[in-house]
Amino acid sequence: MLFDVLLTISDVVETQPISEQNVYSRYSIFTIIDSSHLSTFVIALILIVYGSFRALDLDKAKESSMSNKFLSETSSNEQAPHSHVIETMHAIALPLGASISLIIMFFFFDSLQTVFILCTAILATMGFAYLLTPCCQVILRPCSDNTKISFGICGRYTLSEIVAFSLSVGLVLIWIITGHWLFMDVIATGLCISFIALVRLPNLKVSALLLLGLVIYDVFWVYFSHYIFTTNVMVRVATREAENPLTTIAKRLNFDRYRAPRLSLPGKIVFPSMQHQGRFSLLGLGDIIMPGLVLCFVLRYESRKRTINLYNNDPLLLINRLTYFQCSLFGYCAGLITATISSEIFKCAQPALLFLVPFTLLPLLLIAYLKGDLNSMWSDPFAENGEISSSSCKLLNV
Fold first, then answer.
1. Cα distance between residue 121 and residue 115, in whole Å
2. Which of 11, 287, 314, 373 is catalytic?
3. Is 218 a catalytic residue?
4. Which of 202, 322, 183 is nearest to 264 (CA)?
5. Is 256 among the residues known to form the active site?
6. 350: how many CB neighbours lie within 10 A of its CB?
7. Which member of 223, 313, 326, 343 has the greatest number of CB atoms within 10 A?
């Protein structure tokens, strides 16, 4: 399953230190205020915020589509994509499945590297096409009436979706040909936004269960795997590069002189430092997607409260001025800064979720308790809207 493959890739690199090579001889505050760190910090925040609001727009589009379900033309041309809900069993099985996949990649990477590249290319194409579709819709609106073109068994797609898919295929091909970090980052942004916008956490209980399980997964494979496998499995897998498929094809065609660059799988955001040549800042997609799913959940919950007028608007209460989304976003920023400082101090791989999860989850639980929303957020916050149902969402297969 392609989703499991990408999530494994994301988890593999998410505990890589945010700054891993060419470390300074002595610790300085200027190593924290590095252009590469600032770039990854800003990009991570943009991806989480945009992905969360993209998910909110998707929910509104679903509600609009359901209200116009009797209009056959509207429902056929503007049908929103299905979202995928992570249930309790999925949250439990996800860290276990990621661990098994990590072991497989550790022992059989050389044998399966072509499969990894193929799965990554397919997912990258789909994710970036989803990211580009709104832009293509705006640009092509004057010359397209949003009618869908049939491609037989492949389905029906609008002109904007076809153009977005074509551009995405071109970008992935450029990444394969060049292997440049910039194209890898662009592909990774599409994957992040697609996951945050299309995957749903149904309540706070599942959110906490999933994040705590991934923290244990992170800590074990970063801090304790070398006691069993004599090497740090997480770092070993995260830093390996796959042979370019173009090189394999050239060898089969007896073009031995051609050597395409080896590919680093786009499971991370990488930025070079402008101050120090050869120094890169790295942040795994799992460190963006998993906390991003929590922020997406609280944003949707707050939107639901506004819709049914459950907000306490007493201006005398300072706690009511702070939204759950703002609280979680501030916590994520603090956790990311702490993880950066930790990687600079200890000069080794750090499980970033060990810092991100407490800083994101604990303030959210505290504010929800003070506002009196903890019970509803913990169990079934969207029950009254009937949002989490088998008719509107597909379960995520793990």
1. 10
2. 287
3. yes
4. 183
5. no
6. 25
7. 343
